TrEMBL record:
Taxonomic path: Bacteria, Pseudomonadati, Campylobacterota, Epsilonproteobacteria, Campylobacterales
SUPFAM superfamilies (alphabetical): FMN-dependent nitroreductase-like
Signal peptide start and end residues: none
InterPro entries on file: Nitroreductase-like, SagB-type_dehydrogenase
Record's protein name: Nitroreductase domain-containing protein
PANTHER family xrefs: NITROREDUCTASE FAMILY PROTEIN (PTHR42741)
Amino acid sequence: MQEFHNQTDITKKNAFTQTQFINWQTQAKAYKTYPKFYRRYNLDDYEELRFIKNFGKVTYSKKYGNDEVKLRVNPSAGGLYPCEIYIQIRGIKKFLNGIYHYEPLEDSLTLIHELSNDGLESYMNIKQQKFIFLLSNVYFRTSWKYEKRAIRYLLLDTGHQLGSIYASLVLEDMEHLFNFKFKKKQLNKAFSFDKYEHFVASIYSSEYKDIETNKLRDNIPFVPPCDYYIKEPFIEEFYSHSYHKSFDNLKINFLKELSKENLQSAINNRRSVRAFKQEAITKEEFETVLKDVFIIARKYNIEIFFINNLIIGLKKGIYKEFQLQEEGNFNDISTTLAFNQKIGGTSSATIFFTSKIRTNYSLALILSGFLAHIISLRATNLQISSTGIGAYFDDITQDTLITSNNILYLMAVGK
Ligand SMILES: Cc1cc2nc3c(=O)[nH]c(=O)nc-3n(C[C@H](O)[C@H](O)[C@H](O)COP(=O)(O)O)c2cc1C
């Protein structure tokens, strides 16, 4: 996997090759729609299913001339939204047991497969569940703009999308288990994805019946996930390599410290900051935002650094977790690292997610996105702004942090 990472580095030498101009008229469609004649269900009509709206609902609309851009609860590199969500549901009153496709812009579910004695459980070696949430990537939505470097953004976006699902389940007190190790290849086939779309992660919640299930009795029909598609062999190869890795189940306990009202309001109000006013945040606030993040990160071989630009009560400088590595003012360097984006240097802190070479690369990217999402919700709750930063110099960041780790993601936090 290291080769895939190396080939997508932004460095001092190759920076000039980064896409400078993009014609937004050619953007691929950012959501999949099954045909009109499929049965659809509005989430507002089902009390027990309303929580699903928090997975991806629209929370802000921006107008650019005649175009309207709809921003969702989950952030996405370039606002391109490459993730699709499929949900298998059992045992909800007046609701068919089936596999549904989630339509975030419509707050609705489309029935794509009715269950009998079959189900997704058979691809995961688990007993019947009330809910199984499956995440796929439609990679062209992102590679359209970011070309090969899209491999990173796709998995970071996946992590954020998992974070949105996780927060929604916490809000409902629903137990949940993340599972990255299921028969993705077989499921891609059963959903007729034909390499246009790739399953990447699943979460399941609430055991339903102690019953074994069979494989899906029919394949789900192919429906194109975009209005057009340009295939990228490099990215398809990347996904095919991810299959061979074994992933752990992930058990975590974040966001339970927030009241239900505050969590819902953080979900509704999270936004990526576009410019900081450069007001300071306190050490206590920063620690609250990061509570237990280092511990979980470490468990999965992610090493977190940060540069303190403007946190009161903490010496300015470069930190590895909370250990000061080098004291000093690094505002300008922080901007440079973030591919010369000002948000990198005007933040109170810019956080760096890194992982050692030879750790599970795909999982490290997904988890970095997930942890960044937790940070963003906690920060929103404290009226602190944040944004993920996927465009950064790999080589200068490694030199500045004095690490040979892969740099996976940056996150700017501040006011
Ligand atoms: C993986 C990832 C990478 C991102 N990279 C950048 C970046 O380099 N610079 C930036 O200003 N915003 C970045 N963003 C923020 C997105 O532009 C933002 O999420 C998107 O426009 C949607 O807006 P929202 O987050 O306010 O809903 C990134 C977001 C994600 C999830």
